[in-house]
Amino acid sequence: MKRLWPKSLVGQLLLVVALMLLLAQGINSFLLYRGAQNQNLVEASTSAVSRIAYGLERQANDRPGRRGGAMRARRWGQLKYGGESAVTDDMRRLPELEARAGQAFANMGIGFTDIRATTLRKLTPGMTGHLIGSSRDERRNSPINRSMGARQAPTESSGFVIISAQQADGQWVSIASVVRERTPLLVRTLLFQTITIYLLMLIPLILLGRYISRPLKSLTARAQSFQPGETEDLAEQGPPDTRELIRAFNDMSGRVTRMIDEKDVMLGAIGHDLRTPLAALRVRMENVEDEVERERMIAGIEDMDHMLDDILSLARLGRSTEQSDPVDIRSLIETVVDEFTDLGHQVRYQRGEKQIAAVRETLIRRALRNLIGNAILYGKAADISVEKSGMKLLIYVDDDGPGIPEARIESMFEPFLRGDASRNRATGGSGLGLTLARAIARDHGGDIILKNREHGGLRATLILPVG
Predict the structure, then answer these.
(1) In a structure prediction context, what are the per-residue pLDDT tens digits for the chain, which is 467 residues long?
(2) What are the boundaries of each domain within the chain?
(3) What contacts 161, CB < 8 A, 6 or more positions away?
(4) What is the pTM of this model?
(5) What is the Cα–Cα distance from 95 to 84, expressed in whole angstroms?
(6) Which of 172, 221, 278, 395 sits 20 to 30 Å CA-CA off 43?
């Protein structure tokens, strides 16, 4: 069912309207079909009532001395006379038709003590010689007409109506009438009606949907590619509600841009105001005579400087002036690996095929440094490999450390949260490494995923889009 459900607003609107029209047309068709069936019964019963009235009138008007008058009247009228009704007790009676027939006889001045009506799919043997409405079909389908090339007419009968009326002397007069079936014509009419309704309703809805969805698609594309600092507003188009939405989006993007500009100014001031006294403080520390104490104080200043650098880098993501350029990821990884091996760390890189991706090299290099640094910190060594999957490049950084409890994996990306509870330089940095690395990856349209390895250790996967 989900596969058949459209994803677009216009498609969903059209599908709902089409289903509602189909449901309404189905109910209408059922009601029309029932009405047509009732009309067919009424017409058949009207013919039967007329034939009974006409036959009785011919019988009454025949002169008593005329030879064979009564026999001719009975034969011409095809009426069945007998002491019992042709509508037996085991047949389903039709009260509405009986009431209509009684009213019609009364209007013609004919009185009957009882009137019975029923409908049958197959005519009883006793009424086969007392049937009206079938002579035309019999003439069409006769052997003579077929031998002369006439086409055999399709069966138009859906059943038979039997009207049986009891006279004052107790004798019953009965006649059967063919119920004509007009369903093919009704089906063609309903089909034409349905197609017409769909054309009259869905074509304007399609045009209206396109009128509404076109500006919404433009708004969606602008929202997905939104970059702070864009000065060109999105053109207002579509119905009034959509225009109001686009106007609100333009106002919001302007406010976001102004807020980010103010934040950049504030960060610049913070960076300047903090780094200047830190630099002066470090110069003063050089005069401390106690070498151990001096090294500790310098290490604390460096920690503060690194933390400040991480905070500023994280805050400025999305406003980097560096452009994305095609970069050989293999060479970039080798550069980062050489930095760690030169410092005496154990970092292994499984060199693979050349992979090109459009990235901001400085930021991706920083993300890799953070991931490899964590692997060395907690696992003493790092293994790096690269794999391409479709339009994604997967960079794996594996370690042999203790891993992370499954319940805490996602929380490790929160700022200032580290795997080690301590805050000294020997066990970790500022707690922003993973946060900054994921922010860099997502800024490129990728992500970072942490997963415990099956045989121990942790795997950090840096995902980058390629192509």
Answers:
(1) 566 777 777 777 788 888 888 888 888 878 877 787 788 888 888 988 998 888 888 877 765 555 554 554 444 447 899 889 989 888 999 898 899 899 998 998 888 999 999 999 888 888 888 888 876 444 444 443 444 344 444 446 778 999 999 998 899 999 999 888 766 666 777 788 888 888 888 888 888 888 888 888 888 888 887 776 666 888 888 888 888 999 998 898 888 888 877 877 777 777 777 777 888 887 888 888 888 888 888 888 877 777 777 777 766 666 555 678 899 999 999 999 998 998 889 999 987 788 888 888 888 988 999 899 989 988 888 999 999 888 899 999 999 888 888 888 888 888 766 555 443 444 445 577 888 888 888 888 899 999 999 888 999 999 999 86
(2) 9-136+156-187, 226-319, 322-465
(3) 41, 44, 45, 48, 97, 117, 118, 119, 176, 177, 179
(4) 0.48
(5) 19
(6) 172
CATH number of 226-319, picked from 1.10.3470, 1.10.10, 3.90.1570, 1.10.287: 1.10.287
Nearest to 13 by CA among 212, 245, 286: 212
Note the CATH architecture for domain 322-465: 2-Layer Sandwich (3.30)
What's the CA gap between 82 and 100, in Å, rounded? 23
Per-residue H/E/C for 357-404: EEECHHHHHHHHHHHHHHHHHHHCEEEEEEEEECCEEEEEEECCCCCC
